[in-house]
Write a structure and sequence with these properties.
GO terms for molecular function: DNA binding. InterPro entries: Cro/C1-type_HTH, Lambda_DNA-bd_dom_sf. By secondary structure, the protein is mainly alpha-helical. It has helices at 5-17, 22-29, 33-42, 47-57, 61-70, 80-88, 90-100, 105-111, 116-128, 155-170, 189-213, and strands spanning 75-77, 132-135, 139-142, 144-149. The chain has a two-stranded parallel sheet with strand order 1-4. The protein has a two-stranded antiparallel ribbon with strand order 2-3. Helix 6 (80-88) packs across helix 7 and helix 7 crosses helix 9. It is globular, with a radius of gyration of 21 Å. The relative contact order is 0.11.
Length: 246
């Protein structure tokens, strides 16, 4: 059957928000990429197929219908006010993390101390901040892109530098899933630019892996954080030996 352009556009936005390509969707549906492209271009798919696509995206038909009616692209960045609200309340930040990673309420309550009232209250606050949309059954639909970025020198980045960076590096990186590389050297401007581009590619690969593994249960996933950074920098302990450039 042919489905509306709005529904197709809604599906496309959900795919983009989760960094899924037609090829990724085809693999999940056990179809050829050409068949998936044809379904979307012709808007020809059965209700059963539509439900299968929604299952891959972990959304309901009601959620898809709401997105089709809204017709706006997901946010690539939060506002200063939204970030500050998350910085001010760690429980709210955790709730956003869990929602972005598609944790179901039962999994949340199995791993954290949020009862029904507290969890609902956190979702309501995220909804009122315009970061998620609270759906039936206490499902939170993120209004952000899955790979949204924190503001440069915004509340969250400043909070991380001042409060969280020490915590991140406090324990040794000696576990099976850990890695810490401390690299220093002198590069040309072109070399630095190339390395910066490569770090961006690693970040996009991380986003893609998040999207790929999002359909797994909470028990099959491990929370992981990457810090990717580069800057012209000399250790503070070297500063006394620097010759004045004046």
């Amino acid at each position: 059957m042919a489905i509306s352009i709005e529904l197709i556009d809604g599906l496309k936005r959900f795919l983009r928000a989760q960094d899924l390509t037609y090829r990724d969707l085809a693999l999940r549906l056990k179809l050829s990429e050409a068949a998936v492209k044809r379904m979307f271009s012709r808007r020809a798919m059965s209700l059963q197929r539509l439900e299968q696509i929604c299952d891959v995206l972990d959304i309901g038909l009601v959620e898809l219908s709401a997105e089709a009616g809204r017709g706006r692209a997901p946010m690539a960045m939060l506002s200063e006010e939204q970030e500050q609200a998350l910085v001010d309340d760690p429980a709210l930040l955790l709730a956003l993390f869990l929602t972005l990673n598609r944790w179901k309420q039962a999994d949340v309550q199995a791993h954290f101390t949020f009862d029904d009232v507290k969890w609902t209250a956190l979702l309501v606050r995220l909804d009122r901040l315009g970061i998620i949309e609270l759906m039936p059954g206490n499902r939170g639909r993120p209004l952000t892109a899955r790979n949204f970025r924190w503001r440069a020198d915004g509340p969250m980045e400043r909070h991380f530098r001042l409060r969280m960076l020490g915590d991140y590096f406090a324990d040794p990186f000696d576990g099976e899933q850990d890695v810490l590389l401390l690299l220093s050297g002198a590069l040309s401007v072109a070399g630095i630019r190339q390395l910066k581009q490569r770090l961006g590619e690693v970040a996009r690969e991380f986003d893609g892996l998040l999207a790929r593994d999002a359909a797994l249960s909470a028990q099959e996933r491990v929370g992981v954080s990457l810090v990717l950074a580069q800057k012209p920098w000399l250790l503070q302990l070297f500063h006394p030996y620097r010759r004045s450039q004046g």
